Amino acid sequence: MIEQMMKTHQNKNRIKHFLKGIYTLFFFYNLLLFLNLRLNAQEKILFLKEGRLWETVNLAKTGPMFANWTRSGYGMDYPGFDTEWIAGHVGEGPSHHVGGGFWIGALDSSGNVMGREDYALYAGSVGFETTSKYIATKHGFITDGRENFYNQRWDGMGEIAIETEYAWNPDYLFPYERKSYLPIKVNRKVHQWPTHERDQDYIIFDYTVTNVGDSAMFKTHVMFLYGFSINARGWSILFPNYNAGSRNTRMLWDRNRRLMYGYATDFKAVEGNDSYDFWADGGPNRQGEYLAPAYAGIQFLYVSPDSSGEANRIHNYAWASSHPTQSSHPFTNKGTVEEDYAVLKNPANATDAITSLGDERWGNAKIWTMVSLGPWDIAPGDSIRFTIAEVIGSVPYEEAVDPNATTSDIARGRQILMDNADAAQANFDAGLNIPMPPAAPDAFELDYLGEDAIGAVLSWDHTGEMLPDADYTGDEAYDLAGYRVYRSNYLPIGPWILIADIPKGDPETFDSFEQKYSFIDTSVVNGEAYYYAVTAYDTGHAVWPPDPALYPNGVPPLETSKYINRTETPFRAGYGASEDLENVLVVPNPFILSSGLTQTADSDNIQFRNIPSPCTIRIYTVRGDLVKTIEHTESIGSAVWDQVSEYGQFVESGVFIYHITSHAPDSRGKVTIGKFSIIR
User: What is the 3-state secondary structure (H, E, C) of 369-432?
Assistant: First the structure.
C-alpha cells in the first residue's frame, strides 16, 4: 500500500515536472517571440540624429508614417532637437515633412498594369516576415556610431550611412487583393555628413531598382511623393483653431537644378502677413522668433537614362492639395492599380491635383509634392538608378530670433538652400568624397569653478590632433589648427556666440602633462542657464588631392559642426555647494510674474541659492500642505523650481514655506526653514 502510494506520488511529480517543463518552454518560446517582434519593430525605424538635420529612415520610406498630417517623428527636422529638451510651449518639433519616398508602377507585355507599389505613404508591403510581399534582408547602419566621422574608415560614403534592401517574395499570398505585383529588388543607401558646419544640411538617398523576375517591365514609372509641411513647428502656436498640417506651404520647381522646394508663406484664411511665421510671445527675455525660416526640398542628383536615352530627365511634376479635415492624399478614392499607375505616369491625374502656380489653393491647403521619372523598359536582371538629396536652407538661428530681422533677411534662406543643393550635387558628382574638417573632440567635460567663484570649466583631450586628414599625407595631414568654444544662453540649438578661439597647443589652456585643454568661462551670470559647444577648425589647403580641378582656388578653411559636440541640458551658473545653511537665499523673492530667470522658458523659475549638495528641498503652503519635493544632487550650490506642483499644476499666488535638509557629509541632517511669496 505504501509502495503504491509512493509510486502514485512519483508519477504525480513526474507529470508535474513534465507540465512545468512544458510551461517553461512555452514561456521562453513566447518570450523569444516577443523579443523577436520587438527587435523587428525596432529595426524597421532608424534615426539620423547627429548634426543639424534629423531624419527618420523606415524600411521602405522616409520620415514618419503618415497620420493625417500629425507629426509622429522626425521628418527633415531642422535644427533637430527633441521637444523635451525645451520647457514651455514651442509648438511641434521643427519638422519639414510628414513622410516621403517613391511609388513605382509598370506594364506587362500586353500593356496591362503589372503592379504598383507604395514606398512613400504607408509602405506596408515591406517587412522582415516571410509573409511580407517584399522581404527586407538588409536594414541597418553601414557605419557603426561615429567610426567613419571625418572619413576615417571609408571614402565614397557618408560619415553616417544606412543600407536597406528588400525584394519581391515569390511565395507571397494575395488574400485581399488582385494578384498584381512588381518582381523587383530595391537597394537604398542613405548618406549624411553631420560633422561639417558646411555640408551637414543635406542627406543623400541613392536607390537602385532591379528586375528580378522572368519577364520585362515596360513603361516603368517612379514618382517621388513628399508631404511637405514647412511650418509644422509654428502651426499650432499661430493657428491653434486649425487641425494639424500647415496650409501655408508654397512649393516651387527649379528646372535647372532639378530641385523641388518650398517655404512658409501667408495663410490666406487669416488676416495679416504671417510669412515665415513670427512668434512674438516669449516673455521679457524671449521676444519671439521666426518659427519657419527654413526652405526645404528634394534635389534630383541623378536619374538613369530613360526610354528616350536621356539621363537626368524629369518626366513630369505637379502638386496635390489635401482635404482640410480628412486624411486625404493624391491616391484618395483611386482604388484600382490602373488609376494609381495613371498618377505615377502623370501627377496631374492625382486627386485634387494642382498644376498651376496661380492656383487659389496655394496658401489655403496642405500640399503634396509629386515628381515623376521614367519611363523605363527594364529587362530581367537589369536595373535603374535614381538619387535624391533632401536639402535645407536657412539663415543662422541667431537671425531667426533677432526681433530686428526682416522678412527680407529671412528670405536669404532661399539662396542658402540653392548653395546647399549645389554642394550636394558636387558631392555626388565627386563620388561621395568631399574635403573634411579636422576631428573635433569626441566630448568635453563641464564643471563648476568652485564654492567661492562663479564660472564654467570646459576640458577636452587632444586626440583629434592625432587623427590625420584622410586626403593628405605627411605633416599636411595633421591639419587641426585650433578649437572654438561657443555658448548659448537660450536653447541647445542656439543662438551661439563665439567666446573663445584657442590655437592648437595654446600654452594658456593646454596642459602638456595631462594632455588636456581647459577653458574657464567666467563671463556667466549667477543663476542663468547656458549651453556649450566645442568645434575644431583648419586653415584650408592649396589643393584637394583626390580631384584638384574641383577646387581650383584651393580648399577653404573648414570647421566642424557645433551640433555634434554640444551640451543638450542646461548648465546653470552658480557657486559650488555650501555647507552653511544660514546663507540660503530664494531668488527672486517675492516672485512677480515675468521676473524669473532669463533662459528661455525660465521666466517662471525660482532659485534656491547657497544650498548644500546633496539635499532635499520641500515646499509647503502656510497651511502645511506639501507642494513639491526636490532632490538636489548636483555639485552646484543652487536649485530651481518651475512653480509646478507634484500634481503637474502651476501654483497660485501666496506665501510658501521651504524646508531644506542637508545630506552633505559635514552638515548631514541639518535643516533650515524659510519663506517666500509668489505674486502671479
Answer: EEEEEEEEEECCCCEEEEEEEEEEECCCHHHHCCCCCCHHHHCCHHHHHHHHHHHHHHHHHCCC
